Amino acid sequence: MGEKADVWQGTLALMVLKTLEAMGPLHGYGIARRIEQTSGDLLSVNYGTLYPALLKLEQEGYVASEWGFSDNNRKAKFYQLTRAGKKQLDRETRDWRQTQEILAKFLGAREQTS
Amino acid sequence: MRHLRAWLIRLAGTFRKERLDAELSAELESHLQMHIEDNLRAGMTPDEARRGALMKLGGVEQAKESYRERGRLPSLESVRQDLHYTARTLAMRPGFAIAAVLTLAVGIGATTAVFSVVDRVLFRSLPYPEDERLVSFGVKAPFEGIEFMLAPEYAVLRGRQNPFESMTTLTPGGSDCDITEQNPVRLNCAVVESTFLSTFGIRTIRGRDFLTGDDRPGAPPVAVISYGLWRSRFGGDPKVVGRELSVNGKPLEVIGVLPAGFEMPNLAKVDMLLPQVLDEAALDRSNPRVLLRAFARLKPGVTIEQATAQLQPWFQDSLRFVPPQFRAEVSLRVRSLRDRQTADSRVGAWVLLGAVVTVFLLACVNVMNLLLARAAGRRRELAVRAALGASRARLVRQALTESLVLAILGGVAGWAFAYALLKVFLAIAPDGIARLEQASLDLRVLLFCLGVSLLAAVLFGSTPALNEPAAEWLAGRASSTTARGWFRQGLVAVQIAFSLMLLAGAGMLLRSLWKLQNVPIGLETQHVVTAQVSLAQHRYTDNARQLAFFEDLETRLARIPGGGVLALSDTLPPSGGMQATFFASIEVPGRPRSAQGTGGMVGWRMVTPSYFDALRIPIVHGRGFAEADRAPTEQPVVLSEALAARLFPGQDPCGRMMRFTAFDRQGPWRTVVGVAGNVKNNGLSAEGDPEFYIPWKNDAETYVGRGFAIFRTSLSETSIVSWTRSQIAEIDPLVPVEFATMNTRVEKLAARPRFNAVLLGTFAAMAVVLAALGVYGVVSFYVSQRTREIGVRMALGATSTGISRMVLLSMLRWTIVGTMVGLAGAWFGAELMESLLFGIRPHDPMFPLVALGILVAVALLAAWIPAYRASRVDPMVVLRYE
Q1: Does residue B81 belong to any structural domain of this protein?
Q2: What is the CATH number of domain A5-113?
Q3: Where on the phi/psi map is residue B301: left (φ > 0), alpha (ψ -120 to 50), or beta?
Q4: pTM for the complete prediction?
Q5: What residues make up the domain containing B27?
């Protein structure tokens, strides 16, 4: 686990929201696996940290949860993006892109000067 | 918005944590199962599959912990923990908790109860709008305690420029009046000028106020009734205005109803206000005879001093009508309404408040000492908690929680105690402490009590909490505590100082009370029952009827079953209220009339011959009255010793002549037939006035509206009361009679000093107990801190006496400092109390010295117990424990 970068806490919420947007209703385990796969296994989720983050999102009203059954007929809690969550996702994605652009320009400028 | 929503959900989560926990467990369980299944599908062995899943999850407990933190409000959680922990530690040492809560309850309870009482006297505003502008004003003269106004002079002032926005008068004493229609009742009526309600800013809740014309002679009679009368007699009938009511046999019209909380400015009871009609005769300036009480509302911004100055020209002008030799003794007085109402309760109220605040501070100091001692004993525990990661703020919060819990418990217990105490106050309180009967533990007092509890919590909670736990405490060794020891011993010195002041003050009041109750009043009160009879003027309209009543009364009552002595008199000692005249108005042949001043007042009474016998007042010279003296032609007089000495110094007064002015008429020449012993006639503490007696005659000249029947009998009070009642009822069943034994009449006069002395005595006792507890606490702490040192000393050969002495000496220093401060305080405090004292000098050194003795003895006793314990320390045990 050590060689993989820990998930940057702030972005975890964004990844969860993005995952739910892409996959529809999904349980905690599914979300964790999905994040791991999409990041190409470069990013390893410490699965335990996912649950407090999910709880926080739920308290803020960005996701809603419901008990249901998985593909293997196992009882699991399913999370779903709410309308407020969708808006929040758009907003955060925008912010994130902006940050990235600024960062890219900054790094690019440094390379040119050196 | 989002944050608020999340916070509310977390708040809710705090109270249903079991459900949250269960839900999370289920969720994690399903997570693990799914992961394990995936791992198995990937070809792992069941063991590997499980291990991998668990590792990936990263520690179930940690996940749960952070989930919990997010699910609830951790700060609230820790408050719950603090409370829980507090409850546990307090229950672990119930002795400490009980001592602290009781001490606080006493302090808070006494403070609240006394505040409830003095609040009424000292602080609360009067029930009139802008009450600070209301004043009582008039002329102050030696024969009348309260300032008054002569009707014609008042009329003059009304026409002149004056500093008042409006002014008004009322007739002192009000008037008895009876509703004389079906269900007759006797009412308290106040007779007031038409400007009365408007000056005080009171509006009627129904109907109208008096108009200017209502108090003119010949105006149709009207009345404003009290809220109480409106409810009780008219059932709150909204159409009561305009109703006709028969009062004293004459019809009058109800024009208005007073609001519920209405209060007369002289605090008299009132059921009905009647307009004060002043006719030509009352306003005759050459012969002023109507006395009024005047009140006014100052113009905005005018001070009492300015008003007094502005009234001076009018006052100087009106002085022209005062006989020149009296002028020096007459002055103008303007004072606030509050001063007039509470003048004589103020000093007592301040002394009580001061005493109780002192007791409260002592209680706080004690609890603080208790907490300090406990904190020192728990330093090891604090150090352990700090080492395990408790933050400083967390420790402080824990300590504050403990103090708050104690303060709140103390506040609640104190509230109950205050309730009981106030009941006791009201039960033993004398009449005439202004507004005392209205005192109740109301909302304001409740807030005060709560504020005081919280203040106490901060006061004694902060100090222990500010102790920073040091690492060395972990060792559990007693390190040097000198600085804190100084602080605590200083607190004890303060306690001793204050207790000494209270004790000295209480001693002075108790001694005053004792002297007062043993003051010779000049008569024997045992076996004397008195009955006061007052005749309603509208039923006994002329002297003849009245005469007939009293003749009948005397004949009937003289036949006391079982024998005894009956006497009649118009007034009774030792309270005041008798008829009086100026000494200067008494004429003696051959003695020049005094040209200077009034010479003070001389009282006189009308008595039947057996009066001296009934009250056992000794006739020291000559004789008392005989039946023959009641004949119309006889004019005898009996002087008191004091008066005889002033009128006929060094001579035999018997057979000499004197005359005086009474009822506005020059009386006949009277022959002195005897001299009676002096009797207190102006209350117990005042120097009595000289007085003389004239016989109660059954003639039509003197109109007596009320009188006392005095029985000296061996019959029980109840049987004489019921017999007298039936006898009087046979003459006239509607005459009200009030009974009292002479003992209770005298007791009543000492009620106020007794009230003050009992209260201050109680507080002083509380203070001494608190101080003793304080000393005990500090010395015990000192001993427990030095157990090791004492053990070493003893091992090196110190004797147990030496150890006791060492411990006692450590305390003695502070006791001495405390008593020195206390003695100085008592010296200055005594001056403030001077007006409450009787028969002792305020600077009598005896009281502080006795208090000093008591306190030193108590302090030594309190210190001796732990000192003795110290001397029994077994060096082997102590050193091994090390």
Answers
A1: no
A2: 1.10.10.10
A3: left
A4: 0.65
A5: 2-72
- For B753, the token pair is 């000093």
Cβ contact (<8 Å) for B66 and A76?
A: no
Q: From the list A1, A28, A72, which residue is nearest B31 (CB)?
A: A28
A53–chain B nearest CA distance, Å: 8
CB contact under 8 A, B31 and A60: no
Same domain (yes/no): B720, B780: no
Q: How far off is chain A from B24, nearest CA to CA, in Å?
A: 8
For the residues of A37-85, what is the DSSP string, one character each?
HHTTTSEE--GGGHHHHHHHHHHHTSEEEEEEE-TTS-EEEEEEE-HHH
User: Helices B800-832 and B846-871: crossing angle, nearest 10°?
Assistant: 160
**Contact between A52 and B10 using a beta-carbon 8 Å cutoff:** no
Q: Identify whether residues B235 and B283 lie together within a single domain.
A: yes
Cα–chain center distance at B274: 33
Both tokens of B766, joined, read 């509380």
Residues in B closer than 8 angstroms to A30, CB to CB, are 34
Of B2, B34, B62, the CB nearest to A70: B34
B720 inside domain? yes
- Residue position matching structure tokens 């009582």: B136
Q: How many whole angstroms from its chain centre is CA B707?
A: 33
Chain A positions touching B41 (Cβ under 8 A) are: none
Q: How near does any CA of chain B get to the CA of A75, in Å?
A: 7
Could you tell me if B164 and B302 lie in one domain?
A: yes
Calculate the alpha carbon distances from B566 to B557, B610, B678 in Å. 7, 7, 21
Residue B816 is predicted with a pLDDT of: 86
B586 shares a domain with B514 = no
Residues B376 and B308 in one domain: no
Sign of CA dihedral B223, B226, B230, B236: positive
Local mean pLDDT, 10-residue blocks, chain A (114 residues): 45 85 88 81 68 84 87 85 89 84 76 48
Whether complex ipTM tops 0.90: no
- A97/chain B closest Cα distance in angstroms: 24
